[in-house]
Amino acid sequence: MITPDPQTLLLSVALVLALWLLLRVRGREERDRRPKRANPLTPDELGRTVFQIARGADLDAFRALFLTGAEAAEMLGEDAPRYLEQRTLAAMEESLVNIAARIPEGSVFGGAIVPPSGEAILYAKDADGGKAEVPMGTAIKVRHVWRLHGLVRS
User: Fold this and answer.
1) Model-level pTM?
2) Of the chain's two ends, which shows fewer C-beta atoms within 10 Å, N or C?
């Protein structure tokens, strides 16, 4: 039987520990880079979040406001597969562009509502005090958080 050289064994252990530490640091950096999913608790918070996302043209953040597959299955039942098929990246981008185009330049967030029909609307106030109604799509309350599930078409 060959006995390993103590120095080689020590270097091997040090190399394995260094690789393990490197992987841990890289994994933490990867987790920190992922955008946090917004959890609006009221229609007003949902509207404010959509307003900010539309102004910043942040497609990833907009996509995170929509129902996930599990939430869709829970809330929409048999309609979930159809919803998931329609929820393409291109369709979401078009919806975000449509929302952003309807927000008047220089306006500020002025509130939001989700009536019983589910058609979510945000209000944008301009400098003159006028309010523009901007549709956000349809929204639904999942447990205690508001999520979008319908897109805004042009």
Assistant:
1) 0.72
2) N
- Sign of torsion, CA 38 59 57 66? negative
pLDDT tens per residue across span 9-22:
788 888 888 888 88
CA dist., res. 107 & res. 69, Å (int): 34
Helix (H/G/I), strand (E/B), else coil: 106: coil
In angstroms, the CA 98 to CA 27 distance is 36
Contacts of residue 141, Cβ cutoff 8 Å, sequence gap at least 6? 147
- In 1-153, the DSSP E strands lie at 108-113, 119-125, 131-142, 145-148
Residues 137 and 95 sit within 8 Å (Cβ to Cβ)? yes
Cβ contacts of residue 48 below 8 Å, gap of 6+?
40, 109, 112, 122
CATH class of 43-148: alpha beta
Residue 107 in tokens: 């306006």
Length of the chain: 154
Helix/strand/coil for 116: coil
Considering Cα of 90, then 74, then 118, then 63, what sign does the dihedral take?
Answer: negative
